[in-house]
Each structure stands twice: as structure tokens, then as C-alpha cells.
Amino acid sequence: MLECYTTYVTERFSDGVTSPADLYLEIRDRVDEGSDLPVRHYVAGLRAGTVKPARGAVPRPRKITKWIKLPRGALTRREEDELLTVRLAFLDIARACDLARTFHDLLQHRRGDQMVAWVREFEQEAPAPILALAQRARNQDIYPTKEEPSSTESSSVP
Q1: Exposure string (b/e) for 121-135, b if CB count within 10 Å is 16 or more?
Q2: How far from chain centre, in Å, is Cα 131?
Q3: pLDDT tens digits for 112-131?
Q4: Which alpha helices (DSSP H) does 15-76 contain, by range?
């Protein structure tokens, strides 16, 4: 019977209400259960990380994207915790976040010489929904696909 309320319980848990007894009191009138035991089990799973957070409790994609794009250290403690929860629940988001942050570091620290390796890693490990980025980069010749001679070496004037 708790299934209908897992989203609510997860959201309240994320808001800092971590006591199963308090959470049960909030939904008691709407739950047909005579015991708070299902709430206790669900909260224990949230604490241990063994329960996937209810889908409705996951922040909107726009918010997750904003968190990923911000530099490390720019998130509040609560935002960091929410992003960590999302990363643990959705491995594709975790991998996309890692790749995006590595890309940011390459640009910020002017490590263009490592870009080809990053794109190859991206092509192998990126979640399917965002692989189009690497394919567009390849199609637009943003990075070379093979070693090309420099313009001074390749041009021979007769």
C-alpha cells in the first residue's frame, strides 16, 4: 500500500524529514496500513542506498543539467547531495556527468592535446542518448580522425 506514497516519502526524506515515525504520521490518514513498518523499511532502504528513489522525487532534467554544467564547488551542499542521489540512481547520468566535467577541465586548463583521447573515450563510454555529440564532432571535423601532416610538411612547391 505504500507504493502510492513513495514519491511523497522520498521527497520529504530529501527535505530532511528522516524519521519513519514522522513520515508515517504525515501519511497515516491516507494509508490503509495499520502499521508504520512499510515506511520504516522504505526509509531504511533510502538511508542505505538500496532503494531506488521514487521517480517523482528525481529533480527535473533541466535542473540536473544545470548542476552538471556548474563548476565543482559552485553547488550548495543540498544541490551536491541531490546530484549525488541522482548519480547513484541513474548510472547513465553519472557517466555523462563525469564526461562533461572532464571536458570542462580540458577546456579550462587548455589541454587540447588530450581532446582526441576524450572524444574516443566519449564514443566508447557515453550513454546512448548523448552519443550524437561525438558523431557530430566527427562529421564536422572538429578533431582529426587520423594523423594529418601539418600544412608546411604537406605542401611541396614545384
Answers
A1: ebeeebeeeeeeebe
A2: 16
A3: 898 888 888 888 888 776 77
A4: 20-27, 37-48, 61-69
